[in-house]
Write a structure and sequence with these properties.
The protein is mostly helical. The protein has five helices and two strands; from the N terminus they run αββαααα. About 10% of the residues are buried.
């Protein structure tokens, strides 16, 4: 008796993922109100941050996750406003290679 179970093909995406990462824009250094900070391309962030970043539903938490609490304290001391957060998000999105209004796909889409 022969086994007629079809074989499953495994496609390794490692090489393709490496090529995509190498093609990503570099991290960008921003300066606002005397505070300098560096943000990586949005698509390079861990998946668990993806939904919050794409909608900036919690812009403060996103920046704190990416930049750390010490940098956020500097931003507070410099008097950052909600409008500043919107500006940071818009420019971060543009420099990440995303069109204005374009959001990253959520893990469930």
């Amino acid at each position: 008796m022969t086994d007629k179970t079809p074989k499953t093909t495994v496609v390794s995406l490692d090489a393709l993922a490496k090529q995509r990462r190498e093609a990503m824009p570099e991290a960008t250094v921003f300066s606002l109100h005397g505070v300098e900070f560096e943000l990586p391309p949005m698509k390079m962030l861990p998946i668990e941050m993806q939904v919050r970043v794409s909608s900036m539903s919690d812009g403060y938490a996103v920046l704190e996750d990416v930049l750390g609490a010490d940098k956020i304290k500097q931003m507070f001391k410099a008097g950052y406003t909600f409008d500043d957060l919107e500006l940071i998000h818009a420019e971060w999105q543009a420099r990440s290679g995303l069109e204005p209004g374009e959001s990253q796909a959520s893990p469930t889409s």
